[in-house]
Fold this sequence. Notes:
heterodimer; A: mainly alpha; 7 helices; about 85% helix; about 0% strand; B: mainly alpha; Rna Polymerase Sigma Factor, Chain: A; Arc Repressor Mutant, subunit A
Amino acid sequence: MQCQTASELMSLRLDGALSDDEERALDAHLAVCAACSADWAHMQSACDAFSALTLAEPPAQFAARVMQRVQRRSRRLSLARAGLSVLLVALMLSTLFIAPLRALFSITESVSSVPALISTLVGAIVGVASVAGTVLGALQVVLKALISSPTWLVLAGYLAICAVVAVTWARLALRRPQTDR
Amino acid sequence: MTISTEQEQLWVLQARQGNQEAFARIVEAYQRPVFNLAYRMLGSVEAAEDAAQETFVRAYVRLDSYDPAYKLASWILSIASHHCIDCLRKSNGRQVSLEQIDGARWIPDPRLRPEERTMRAEQRHEVREQLQRLPEQYRLVVILRYWHDMSYVEIARVTGSTESAVKSRLHRARLMMADLLTEAEQAASVPEGERRLTESAVSNRV
C-alpha cells in the first residue's frame, strides 16, 4: 500500500467508514511504515480534540432579535410588493387608455359643429368609463392576489404576463389608426 | 434535538402562510446549531450573531423553496454555510474557487510574527484557534462532521458538493490540523532557527 492511500484510509477510519479488508490492509501498512504510524497518531489526537468540543450557545434574546429582523424584512417586502403592484396598475391603465384617447382625439379633429361634438364627447366618455369600470374590477382582483401572494415567483409571473399583455395592447392600439387610413 | 418531523413540517406549513409564531418555533429549535456553525466559521460572537440572524431571515423569505423530502436542519445549515462563506470572502476581499482550494498547498499563516507564534504555541490545546487557520471550505466540513455529527451525504448536500469531495476535504483538513498541532507543540520546544525548517516541512505537506 502507498502512503497516500494509507493516509486517505486513516481519515475514513476516523469516520468508521472502512471495510474489514481495508482495516486489515491499513493495519498491515501502519505496522511497517513509521511515518504513517506517526501521522496516524497525530491525526487521532487532532480529531480527539474536536470531539471534546460542544456547541456554542447563542447570546441571550437571540431568537427574539431574529424575529424582530424577520418582521422588519417582511414589512419591507410587503411594501416593495405593493409598490410594484401600483406600478403595474399604472402601466396597464396607461396602455389600456391609449386606444380610447386616440379615438377621442381623432373625433375632436374631424367634428366641426358644437352640439355634434358634445354628443360625441359624452358618448366617448361613457365608453371610457365603462372600459375603466371593467378594468378596475379586474385590477382589484389582481392587486389583492399580488399583495397577499407569499412569493416573489408568483409576482414575477404576474409581472411577465402583464408586461406581455401591455406591450401587445400598446402595439395594437398604436397601429390600428394608421392601418385604417 | 427531539423535534418530530411532523411537528417541523407543520411549522413550515404555517410559516409559509405568514404565521410568524410558527417560524419563531423553528428559530428556537435551530438557533443553537445555526449560531454554532456561524461562530465556528467566523470566529467572533458579533459576526456570528449577525450571520445567524441573516440565515433565519433568508430561510423565512425562501421558505417556499424548502423541499420537505430533506431535513429542515440540513436546509437551514446549508443557508448558514453559504452565507458564512460569502461573509468570509467579502471580509477577505477575495474569491477562491473550490478547485483552487482543493488543489492548494497548505502554507502556515505568514502574517503571524514569531512572538505571536510562540503565544499560539502556549495555547496549543486551543483547537478553535487552529480551526480558524484552515481554509474556509475545509473548516466547514470539519464543523459539520464534528459539531453537527453529519454523514458524508448530508455534508455534501449542505455544502452543495459531492461525497468524494467531502471525503477528500475532510482528509486534507485532518492532515492540516495534525500538522498545526504538531507545529504548535514543536514551536514551544524547538529554537527559533530550527522552527523555519519545521514550517517548510508543513507547507510541503498536502
